[in-house]
Amino acid sequence: MDTLLSTRSRKTAGLIVGFIILAAGIACSVAFGVTNIGWRTIVASYTDFNGSQEHLIIKTARMPRALIAAAAGAALAVAGSLMQGITRNPLASPSLFGVNAGAAFFIVTGSAFFGASGMSTFATLGFVGAAFTAALVYVLGSIGNDGLTPLKITLAGSALTAFFSSLSLGILLTGGQTFDQVLYWFVGSVAGRDMGIFGAAAPYMGVALIAALVLARHMNVLALGEDVASGLGQKTIYIKLAAGIVIILLAGGSVSMAGPIAFVGIIIPHLTRYLVGTDYRWGIPYCAVYGANLLLAADIGSRYISFPQEVPVGVMTAIIGVPFFVYIARRGGRS
Amino acid sequence: MSVIEAKSLTLSYGQKPVFSGLDLSVPPGKITVLIGSNGCGKSTLLRSLARLLKPQEGSILLDGTEMAKLSSKEIARRLAILPQGPVAPEGLTVHQLVKQGRYPYQSWLQQWSKEDERMVNNALEVTDMDGLANRPVDSLSGGQRQRAWIAMTLAQNTPAILLDEPTTYLDMTHQIEVLDLLFDLNEQENRTVVMVLHDINLACRYAHQIVAVKDGQIYAQGAPETIMNEQLIRSVFDMECQVTYDPIFGTPLCIPYGKGRKIAKAAVAAF
Q: Which residues belong to any copy of the ABC transporter domain (chain B) (predicted)?
């Protein structure tokens, strides 16, 4: 498999193009929707705020929505790339760590027994649940003489995902209350969140993203296999632990902001490998930028697929993702 | 020159002890081959020598210092290990693979130096991989692939190289190709080579020293021509054979008894 962008200058150009698309994507996400808003109004809402309905839509709905889509997309793609690296499984995704099931369980429990409501509360509960489950999967996957192995982490992730999903469904079915808000969260969407949700998650997701960039060089070595990496003098346990924490922060942050959104963590790392190859030093920034672009595009598309009604973006990524997943699985089966 | 020694090594997998109180000294600048039947612990021994496994008791000394007291990167600058059957990520090129061999020399401050570049090019040249440098590793033949991995360990620029079954799954041509390369590295650059091999005859041909492992103990150790005989093969491999001499190299050659077609001597002479 030859990579499309083989020289350093082409790779840099691809990254710059990605950033341009990102800027354009955020602008479009703010501008287009049930009511289209002109560019001048968007700028004016920040430079010369007059409290009109359009200005309010921009500042309280459209802008947080665009930023959350970009941040969640970037985080999911980078987390997916790291996940595939440490499990050495090309179909691994952040959800394998149980983050979605764990977040859902905490939200359902909070909602059913503690009267939790509102997207901000859900975001906090979701993050705690995601982090808790992922840490549990990590620990369960590391028990034993041989430490963290791809097989054990996959099994631990599947088991806990099934466990927490069953509990969540059980509570939903027997609770006898209305769980409209929770169900809405379950699909995965970036709509209806305020800036506070973005502001709460952005700092630690930013730190995790920087950590991912620092880890890139070490991930290249770890990708050669545990023994080879140890032979080259890498303390693989620390690298895997650091990658695990970064994945938990990114995937947990993403699920807390936008709910479970599938396939971004699989599509983008594969696309990235096709573009720039296996080198994580290029792969991580590419994943971040193009992951953001994919979710922004999917979210903009979700406003038009059954206009004027909106389809949750989680449904959009699934529609795009499933054929892609089948394609990867088939290709992997051949080689 | 690296001197590797194991002192009263004790290691077990779970409840099952692999070694207890094993001593071994690897002669520097020589080729040492570990032989033994499946499950005798030869791979475990090699992996322990390369600090991939931690012994429960005893110690491994590298140039007289306990390995446990050295940093892993420090060890990686003196000793390279090529595990059995390594797999490169899909699409990784030979050049990218070999560059990873410089990992123990890099840090926050020192990312990529002229010396790194020189070592990578040298490793590609010595292994005759420079023409294939931009090919993905997974597109190469078995022998080329193994040479690419050996090139990575060479880029580490260590006086000692340890290899776990470097010829497994290779056809005869590629086995010889890989072993010749290691032989040259020892002859020309005086590198210490320690490896596990399954083929006793090739072991006798290339090794200066053979270490025969049986039931987690060293059964015999020495030059093939002094230690190799019917009795050793019987004890270590539980097999009857005749030991004769390789008609080309003069090194010991084991011919197992057992079944097979027999051709009369007269017919052989007619060839």
A: 4-240
List all residues 6 or more positions away from B242 whose beta carbon is below 8 Å from its beta carbon. B230, B254, B255, B257
Backbone CA torsion sign across B131, B135, B139, B142: positive
A60: pLDDT strictly greater than 90: no
Query: B72: which chain A residues are within 8 Å (Cβ-Cβ)?
Result: 230, 233-235
Contacts of B156 in chain A (CB under 8 A): 232
- Model pLDDT, residue B30: 94
- Please give the CATH topology (third level) of the domain spanning B4-78+158-269: Rossmann fold (3.40.50)
Instruction: Flag the least confident range among A321-335, B136-150, B157-171, B257-271.
Output: A321-335
Chain B positions touching chain A (beta carbons under 8 Å): 13-14, 47, 50-52, 71-77, 80-83, 86-93, 96-97, 100-101, 103-104, 106, 136, 138, 153, 156
Cβ count near A40 (within 10 Å)? 8
Quick check: helix, strand or coil at residue B245? Answer: strand
- A1 pLDDT higher than 50: no
Residue intervals of chain B classified under CATH 3.40.50.300 are 4-78+158-269
Please give the Cα distance from A223 to B181 (Å, whole number): 26
Task: Find the CB nearest A233 among B76, B88, B89.
Answer: B76
Instruction: Kindly provide the ipTM of the predicted complex, given to two decimals.
Output: 0.89
